[in-house]
């Protein structure tokens, strides 16, 4: 693998998360948990909200606060931004545990760092910028199928 497509941690990299309760709210990842606790109180009437990291994750307001902490898409983002503030985690395999018991692509857990999978997760978050449209479409299709299989 000669191609390295991720620039997480670079000087220009700043991610803001869109609040799942109110799309006007933009929060840095480090403040997200606190924000959701407060924001959920103002939105306790809404039933289902979308995960800010992955719009395929649809959860109740009550479950969302827990989910954003465990969301596999979040961990790949924050592990680079805030390596010191994260709770200790097992190696990469834990990234790919989702709410179902199904295997991710029926592959065995990745024992070591896998740049391919890692890149794919980054692309989800960063909307796969810089890829030609055909590749983006192909990638989205693949992601859709994958989440469909998981759910
Ligand atoms: Zn909010
Ligand atoms: Zn999620």
Commentary on this structure:
This protein is mainly alpha-helical and 151 residues long. It is built from 5 helices and 4 strands; from the N terminus they run ββαββαααα. It has helices at 29-42, 61-70, 72-81, 115-125, 133-150; strands spanning 17-18, 26-27, 48-50, 58-60. α3 (72-81) crosses α4 (115-125). One zinc ion binds at residues 19, 21-22, 25, 35, 39.
Q: Helical proportion? A: 40-55%
- The whole-number mean of residue pLDDT values reads 71
User: Class by helix and strand content?
Assistant: mainly alpha
Shape: globular
- Tell me the number of helical segments per DSSP (H or I, 4 or more residues long): 5
Portion in beta strands = 5-15%
Q: Layout of helices and strands, plus pairs?
A:
Blueprint: E1 17-18, E2 26-27, H1 29-42, E3 48-50, E4 58-60, H2 61-70, H3 72-81, H4 115-125, H5 133-150
Antiparallel strand pairs: 1-2, 3-4
This protein binds zinc ion (2 copies).
Concise synopsis of the structure shown:
By secondary structure, the protein is mainly alpha-helical. Helices cover 42% and strands 7% of the residues.
């Amino acid at each position: 693998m000669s191609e390295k497509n991720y620039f997480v941690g670079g000087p220009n990299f700043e991610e803001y998360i869109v609040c799942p309760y109110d799309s006007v709210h933009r929060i840095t990842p480090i403040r997200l948990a606190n924000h959701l606790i407060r924001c959920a109180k103002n939105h306790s009437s809404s039933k289902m909200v979308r995960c800010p990291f992955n719009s395929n994750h649809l959860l109740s307001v009550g479950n969302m606060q827990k989910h954003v902490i465990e969301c596999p898409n979040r961990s790949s983002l924050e592990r680079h931004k805030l390596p010191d503030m994260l709770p200790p985690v097992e190696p990469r395999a834990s990234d790919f545990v989702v709410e179902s018991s199904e295997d991710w692509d029926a592959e065995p857990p990745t024992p070591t760092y896998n740049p391919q999978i890692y890149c794919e997760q980054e692309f989800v978050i960063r909307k796969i910028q810089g890829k030609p449209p055909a590749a983006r479409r192909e990638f989205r299709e693949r992601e859709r199928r994958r989440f469909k299989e998981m759910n």
